[in-house]
């Protein structure tokens, strides 16, 4: 890495609730979900190349270079703007993959915002969010960087400011396929749209949870164990489950009690993403 390197976080998210309202003609599901960020993140470093090449130097297991959402985001940005600059990128992967905490989507959003800055493209947040949506349903919320109530497939975002507790996040060692959960015939698809905003307490279920629990005993077990200390819930389509605590000490204590059988981490909930806090400090 050279000295003119821009290093930015790509934080995780939680779905504090997730309701499925129906299925669209294209097979995608209409959702209502509440996104909040965690102060727990991957780290991406960017260094300018003058030759126009996009190179990611950190390989992820089972994700070829050209399929990595970081590379896809960089290429989309070049195609949209005609920018002739290139970039070297390094990724420090901290977030568990396929866990419903959005690491891939967040890496993509950090790439879009990081390169917009490094390449001095001057794209607006709206333009970056639209480009992000073409990479994945969860990318726009990471581009905008504010906790949000989301509708549609996650692209219609209304900023919200829920409490910011400390969370224990358990990471069951199973890979849950999002497509598989959404194609399960037993999935609840007829939740009624919420009329009240902010989301009333007691309405915070995740409609994917019963199907995921049935298919993955490891997830059911993690929920059962965490439920002994606080209300535990699935994020996204899993596999991660989370529960809130009033302070770090209590969250740390519970994670330590579960450590013999469970892998996980403690992180603070945050309504402004770490990425946006860092970018603000640069501008
Ligand atoms: C449901 C969420 C909630 O945050 O789950 P997680 O992935 O975070 O667990 C996300 O919106 C997921 O977004 P993302 O992970 O980008 O999903 P995609 O790659 O776009 O979709 C994977 C597959 O899931 C199904 N899918 C996804 C989103 C959606 N609203 N309806 C669907 O039916 C589709 O079959 C799609 O082919
Ligand atoms: N930079 C990336 N980080 C993580 N996963 C990526 C990345 N690029 C592509 N992927 C693919 O996206 C899939 C889902 O990743 P991730 O966002 O971590 O899970 P989820 O959507 O469940 O939160 C991974 O299993 C991997 O195949």
Automatic annotation (TrEMBL):
Residues 68-145 form the GHMP kinase N-terminal domain. It comes from the Bacteria. GO terms for biological process: isopentenyl diphosphate biosynthetic process, methylerythritol 4-phosphate pathway; terpenoid biosynthetic process. InterPro entries: GHMP_kinase_C_dom (IPR013750), GHMP_kinase_C_sf (IPR036554), GHMP_kinase_N_dom (IPR006204), IspE (IPR004424), Ribosomal_Su5_D2-typ_SF (IPR020568), Ribsml_uS5_D2-typ_fold_subgr (IPR014721). Pathway: Isoprenoid biosynthesis; isopentenyl diphosphate biosynthesis via DXP pathway; isopentenyl diphosphate from 1-deoxy-D-xylulose 5-phosphate: step 3/6. Catalyzes the phosphorylation of the position 2 hydroxy group of 4-diphosphocytidyl-2C-methyl-D-erythritol. Belongs to the GHMP kinase family. IspE subfamily. This is 4-diphosphocytidyl-2-C-methyl-D-erythritol kinase. It comes from Pseudomonas tructae. The lineage of its organism: Bacteria, Pseudomonadati, Pseudomonadota, Gammaproteobacteria, Pseudomonadales. The gene is ispE.
